[in-house]
Description:
The chain is of the alpha/beta class. It has helices spanning 2-13, 23-32, 50-66, 78-87, 102-107, 124-132, 148-159; strands at residues 70-73, 93-96, 110-114, 138-142, 165-168, 172-176, 184-187. The longest helix is centred in the first third of the chain and has 17 residues, at 50-66. The chain starts with a helix and ends with a strand.
Amino acid sequence: MKRFIEIIKYTWKAKGRHGIHSPFVYDLVDQCFRIPLKNKSNLPFFGKNLPTTKRLKLITQLAKHLEVKELASNESNRHEINHFLQMEGLSCAAQHLPEINQENLMELKLVYFSIAHPSLNDVSPLINLLKVLNDQSLIILDGIRCSDEHLKFWQELCAEKSIHFTADLYSLGLLSKRPQQEKEHFVLRY
Length: 190
C-alpha cells in the first residue's frame, strides 16, 4: 500500500518540460529525455525487470546528450552497459568505478551508482565520489525507492548543501554539484 501511495505522489508532482524554469533542466527534459534510441528493438527485454530497461535507456540518452567519452559504474553490469552503448553507435565505455584512479575521476561527466541492494551498508564510495567529482559531473543513482531506508538516504542527499541539482525520476535519481545553479530539487516525468 505504501508503494502505491509513493507512485501516486510521484505522478502528481512529476513535471514534463512545461513548468520548469531552469534552463539546464528544461534542456535535459526537452533534448535528452526525448533522444530516440536507434536500435529500440535491441533494447533488452527483462520481463518484470523494467527498471533495467529504463536504466539502460537513461544512461544511453545522457551519454549521447552530454557527449561522454567515458562513464563509470559501481556495478558489475558495465559489460551490459558497454554492449548497449555500442549497439547505439556510441564510442564511450563504462569503467568499473573502483578501478579508476583519482585524476580520471575528476574528468568523468557521468557516473552510474546503484544503491538498489537490500541494505545501504556500503554507500561510503558514493560519499567519497561526491568529494572528488568535478562540479559538472552527473550521477545517476539507482534504487532510491527500494525501501524506506533508501528513500530516506535519497532525501538526505537532496538536502546536502554541496549538491545544487537533484532530480527524482521515481526509481532513479540524478544529482550534481553545479555550484553556479541555485539549489533546486525537481521531480521529473521519465
